[in-house]
From TrEMBL:
InterPro entries with a match to the protein in the record: Rossmann-like_a/b/a_fold, TilS/TtcA_N, tRNA_thiolation_TtcA_Ctu1
tRNA(Ile)-lysidine/2-thiocytidine synthase N-terminal domain boundaries: 41-206
Name listed for the protein in its UniProt record: tRNA(Ile)-lysidine synthase TilS/MesJ
Keywords, in A-Z order: Transferase
Species this protein is from: Enterocloster lavalensis
Domain of life: Bacteria
Keyword rRNA-binding listed: no
Biological-process GO terms, alphabetical: tRNA processing
Gene3D superfamilies named in the record: HUPs (3.40.50.620)
GO MF annotations, alphabetized: transferase activity
Amino acid sequence: MIKEPYVAIERSIIKQFRKEIWRPFVKGLQAYEMIADGDRIAVCISGGKDSMLLAKCMQELKRHSKTNFELEFIVMDPGYNPANRRLIEENAALMNIPVQIFESDIFDAVVDVDQSPCYLCARMRRGYLYDRARSLGCNKIALGHHYDDVIETILMSMLYGGQVNTMMPKLHSTNFPGMELIRPLYFVKEGDILAWKDYNGLHFLQCACRFTEQIARDMEARGAAKDSADVVHTSKRQEIKELIKTLKKTNPFVEANIMKSVENVNLDACIGYVSGGRRHHFLDEYDKR
């Protein structure tokens, strides 16, 4: 009997990629207590490799977990061109993910923004996703950020923001009381996600916003590679990716050490820090010790 393609895709997660994907996925869930009995979780799908893998992992988890929780799979169409939307729908059908697609006008809202359109787009997306999830009775949304996103954010925060911050594994929403965000792929590395994608012969969306598409057209007109648009619009993150890659040549543990750096913060060895919205300075308590 010929099995549906999604069966092989599901099997690859818990068999061929058990060590690289399934175990780190479960480790993150357990380490940061992301899911509890009674949760109703909206898995947010952009159409890219990360969120599509997340959807399959969450389906597998529900199938095997003793924790009682429910899932919704939501896709926000912020104004995709027809080909990109069709690719999302086709991949969802191929992978047996019952997506619910809803529309927004985010692309129209940010297309003429000169500074940080990607940041504004991401912020607006989050709000739309929280709102839709809440309307479906969900108390959590799950996003597809992975290990590489986390360590890159740590370095970007230091080198470009002058602060020590990380992408948290879970957090309470400030604008949607009672809602929470979780990142189940927190310990899953991007290279392993790419390997899983290639193993299954899958093809997903890259960034499909109008800003990226316009850059691609401009670069194509100049004879540049089409896919280099992804590098341009995320140039700072790409710089950090390349920096980490270079550092790994002399220190194979650099990625793990970056991650550990925000787990082992010694406040007694910090000039200053912010907690609960209040700024603290080491001199505040210096002569009291």
